[in-house]
Write a structure and sequence with these properties.
mainly beta
């Protein structure tokens, strides 16, 4: 039995002889300076969104969080989501809409108060053209507009007028002053992380 253990120990053991070259070790152990600066990336990331809330004959809630990244020269892009609730008082009738999309915006460096934005969204909402209550439909919206960005430090508030080029009858967003013109008023806050 001891011979078998000795043979197994010889088979599973290995002896390695090598030389250690200090110059080679120095070349491989030096850490390269990273060209990616996490603080600079964090300074370009912003979060925020739009919020609307009203009470009366109907309760209306609109919440649209977003996250973006400033690419270059005031040009940025990002993603947004949306949830909307419309509930009429005295009834059990309520409408829920949700969706999301992408956006691109430009705040010209010499005119930081000016905000130009274009976005593409898809909303899932109740189908107003269907004779059956509860039918849902996906509605595209391609919107562009301009706005005002008033800031304080690493944050700013935004007020925008947006035009919907698709103008789908099922678009769940309330039009400006309830008109038939596909013009929408949006307002919210934006906060830079860095």
């Amino acid at each position: 039995m001891s011979r078998l253990l000795f043979i197994l120990a010889l088979l599973f053991s290995a002896t390695a002889l090598s030389q250690y070259d200090m110059d080679e070790a120095k070349d491989t152990s030096d850490q390269k300076d990273s060209k990616v600066n996490p603080y600079e990336i964090k300074k370009r990331i912003y979060v925020g969104g739009d919020l609307q809330l009203s009470f009366g004959n109907a309760t209306y809630l609109y919440l649209a969080p977003m996250a973006g990244y400033e690419i270059w020269g005031g040009i940025s892009g990002g993603v947004s989501t949306m949830y909307q609730l419309l509930k009429f008082s005295g009834t059990s009738q309520s409408y829920h809409s949700y969706g999301g999309g992408i956006f691109f915006r430009w705040r010209p460096p010499p005119l930081q108060f000016l905000l130009l934005q274009t976005e593409f969204n898809v909303y899932n909402t109740d189908d107003l053209t269907s004779p059956y209550l509860g039918d849902r439909v996906n509605v595209p919206a391609v919107m562009s507009g301009l706005g005002y960005a008033g800031g304080f430090g690493k944050a700013y508030y935004q007020i925008m007028l947006m035009w919907d080029f698709v103008d789908d009858i099922n678009n769940p967003l309330p039009r400006l002053f309830g008109s038939n013109i596909p013009l929408y008023l949006r307002y919210g806050m934006v906060f830079y992380l860095g």
